[in-house]
Each structure stands twice: as C-alpha cells, then as structure tokens.
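job 3f2a | input accepted
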Amino acid sequence: MYLDEIVTARKRSESRGIVSICSAHPWVLKAAMQYATAPLLIEATCNQVNQFGGYTGMTPADFVRYVRGIAEENHFPFERIILGGDHLGPSVWQNEPAEVAMQKADLLVHEYIEAGFIKIHLDCSMRLADDPEGALDVEVSAERAARLARIAEKVGNEKLRYVIGTEVPIPGGAKDHEEGVSVTKVEDARQTIEITREAFYRAGLQSAWEQVIAVVVQPGVEFGDDFVLPYQPEAARELSKFIESQPMVYEAHSTDYQTSQALKDLVRDHFAILKVGPALTFAFREAVFALALMENELFVSNERSNIISVLDEVMLEHPEHWVKYYQGSEEKQAFKRKYSLSDRIRYYWTYPMVQQAFEKMMGKLNQNPLPVTLLKQYAPDVYTMTGKTGGFTPEKILLAKIQNVLADYADACNPQ
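job 3f2a | predicted structure (416 res):
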C-alpha cells in the first residue's frame, strides 16, 4: 500500500511524500496522469462530490467513473490511482440539526467507500445548527469522527486509510487577507490524536485506529485573493519534532503557491501529504488566457472565441461561486474574477457558453502550428520548459502550464 510506504519512509527519516490532487478539472487530471511516475492520489471533497451531486453534479460513484474514463483516455492504469475523500463529515449540512446532518454524513461516507475511495479524511470539526455556541468541543468532534469510522468499517475494505484532524484550513483558500496564521500547538495536536484514539477505542474500532495514517494540522501556510503565506520551518519546528513519536505523518492543506523549496521543507518536516487544487486550475486559466491573447494576434475580431469576455459574462450572470469571496469596488471585483489566487473562475469552465468558446479557441489555434514568437511573448515559461523545440500546440501549452506546478511537488515528494 503506497500510503503506508510514505509513512514508513518518513519514520526512517527519508524525505518522501505524496501530492494530493484536489481537483475534478479534466485538464488537471489529464496533466497529472501524463506526468505521474508514482501512484497518483486524486481527492474529491464533500462539497464537490456527495450523494446529492455536490457542485460538480457527481455522486461518489459518478466521480469514480469519471476518473476511470480520463485514465482510459490517457492510458493510465486505473489501479495506480488512489482515490481520497476530503473533509468527509457534516460540513455541507452545517445549518441543520446535528443528528440530521450526521445521518447525511453517514450516508456520504458509506457511498464514498462503496464507490472505491480508500483514503478517508474524517472531518467533524464544524459546529452544527443545534450545537452550543462557540468552537465545537474536541470530544464531540472525535465522537462524530468515530461514528463515521464505524460506518466505513461496516462497508468494509482492508485498504482503507484514515486521516483525522480538526485544524482544517478553509477549502479553496481564505476569504480575507491574512498577515499570518498560527501554527498548530503541539499540545493541541497531541490532544487531537489522543482524544480521537480514545473515541475510536470506545467504539470498538481499535483495528481502524491502526489505519490512521495522518493528522491534519496547520503548518502556517495559507493563500487568498492576493497573498500567499510562505512556510516558515522555524515556526513549525516543535510541531515537526512531535510527530516523530507518533505512528503517523501530517497532512498539509492549502499548500498552493508555495515555492519549490517550501514544499521540500514541508515534506522534510513530516508534512508528507501535500494537498493542492486552485494552483493547478490557476495554471490552466493562465494557459487559456495566454492562448486567447495569441488568438487575438492571429485572427480578426469576428473569428475569435472571445473566451476571456465570455467567462466574465457568465460569472456575472451566475455570481454564486465568487460573490461571497471577492470584496471591493466593481473594478477590484472584475480584476479578482480573472486573476485572484483563490481562482473562483474554476467553477465556470463547464458552463455551456464557456465550453463553446473554449472549443472554438482550440479549434482555431489548431489550424496551424503556433508561432514560436507568440509563445515567447505570452507563455515564456512554457517556451523555456519545453526546450524551445517548436511544434507547439494549444494542448501542449495547457498541459505544460499545469505540469510546471506539479513538477515542484514531484521534486519535493520524490527527491533524487
């Protein structure tokens, strides 16, 4: 089991890790499959995929079929894919009474595991509608996590591996600008592990506890619209030392946009599971915009896809995916819709108008080889990375942009 190998390697002080691809975007998954040399970890979140469809419209079984289809198209062995469920718990139903929300979380976990997901992040850290005011008590969170683990064990799969932890960054990045975030205190990490272990044991889940491979903590990284908080190893030194005495590693969320060196430092410091999502779709967006600018140079106005303006038009017509996240004047919001590191634009690629514009742009640009001079102008990193060999196609540019991000994670997780 590859996840076990990662944990074992870290306990031998080998600087090994694994990147978790937290995206359902077909081009991201295609790029990852074409780039991967080790088993590929792909995760879906409870908001993205659940028994009611989530924002992708996919159930867990749908998502597995979707990933399998992309794997077949790219000749990637499906058995080399590890499927993970992220933030599995009552998060989607926080506004409902606890028992109602937990019953839905029970079914969520059941469907994920029945569909074939094996890496299960049990996240019951959120307050539900009839919970007391204030932060949820860690004992309550642990009891709820054990309840979901019991469901998982009943479905049954000897390959199941669990991730626990209540210090979970906001999925997709922070809503507000932050100057810093607090690194998890050692006593809090110890308490999370001990109280969750006790809850598992009370539930008769000793064998399931042996399959807990990681705990989510805050190493001090975050990103939002216009900022990235870099990893500072000194601030996490005590936290890093503590996990050496535990039979598990750390899982780090919100590692998007960290430098290559920061990612290497995270893996060295036992943050062996690195989750990334918006940085990958941001790279895809960069590539699409670069291609759109090339299209503007190669075709007259009435032949262009105008995909950039089409995207913004659709986002204005359907603001539900960005309006809570982008503050400021109309001008500032317009800028953020295009260029925010939170990349809320990622929710709009499947809209029919956007899909039509994207396909039109790709069709136009595939008519002839792209001029090297335009690539140097609008995608110089791709020009440099691909060896200046020519023969550039829109597809190569899209994949290269995404794989440029993946390369930093590969270097961190599998150092030569």
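job 3f2a | The longest strand covers residues 81-88.
job 3f2a | closed
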